[in-house]
Amino acid sequence: MSTETKIQATGATLTKVLKAQVSEAYARQSREAAEEKWIIENLPMVSRMARKITSYLTNEADMEDLISAGTLGLVRAARAYDPGRDAEFKTYAYIRVRGAIIDELRSKTFVPAGVYKQIREVQEVYDRMTAMLGGAPSDAELAKEVGLSMEQLYRLFQQARKQQFLSIHGLSDDSPVLDALTPVDQAPLPGDQLERKELATRMAGAIKELPKRERILLLLYYERDLSMKEIAQVLEITESRVSQLHAGLLFKLAAKLR
Q: Measured between alpha carbons, how far is 106 from 250 in angstroms, rounded to an integer?
């Protein structure tokens, strides 16, 4: 092989390598730009989800820690996301952000054993009264039967809401109430699909039996994604009253679906 031929061959090899490096650098830059775009577009979802989760718990829950955990989950989701294999990024990220926020809560204890026992006792009275009356008792009737003031009953509802949240997400020793409705990464088995369908049907029936104002609250909070403060403005009641109603309706739904 002549010197000129060798030089040409070396030049062609270098050109090929250079093209590959440029292509790789461009692809990496494009991927980083895409990841940045996914993260920025979905950051509001993190704070919204953290806010919703803390609405189940207490004002003492550290929102900043939850948002930090959720943001980290979002960044990891963006880095791991494969557009050719996975679902739409927003759906993919939702599952991982939610999981990261839930993990942040795992080491915390929200419901003391004594309060949990009282919740169970009120649930039993609620079930007994529902069977006896042929329908759900009013909050006033339930409070009178269990010997609590309305304010005490609503506080207990809010404690029950914490317990139901922990139960739903497998964070307590109680069996999950609505676990079949939570998002998963893979398609459920046929038996699981049937169970979810049955649970969804039962939940729809239970929601229809709620008072009109509570049904509206459900719609505004879970479908329209309004905050409790915004719902209070729509319903023309206080934000604390919205929180009480929300806790009460979750208590009733959990009782019907148990």
A: 21
128: left (phi over 0), alpha (psi -120 to 50) or beta: alpha
Q: What's the chain's average pLDDT?
A: 77
pTM (whole model) above 0.85:
no
d(CA 145, CA 162): 23
Give the CA angle between residues 88, 72, 89 to the nearest 5°: 5
Residue with the bigger pLDDT between 198 and 107: it is: 198
CATH among 1.10.1740.10, 1.10.357.10, 2.60.40.10, 3.40.120.10 for 3-105: 1.10.1740.10
Q: Could you tell me the sign of the dihedral formed by the alpha carbons of 86, 87, 89, 92, in that order? A: negative
Radius of gyration of the chain (CA): 26
Residue 74, pLDDT score: 93
Could you tell me the sign of the dihedral formed by the alpha carbons of 132, 176, 143, 213, in that order? negative
Helix (H, G, I), strand (E, B) or coil at 105: helix
Identify the pLDDT of residue 103. 81
17: pLDDT strictly greater than 70: no
What is the CB-side half-sphere exposure of residue 195 using CA atoms within 13 A? 11
C-alpha to C-alpha distance for 150 and 40, rounded to whole angstroms: 44
104 within 8 A of 65, measured Cβ to Cβ: yes
CATH number for the region 113-257 comes to 1.10.10.10
- Whole-number pLDDT of residue 252: 85
- Which pLDDT score is estimated for 112? 72
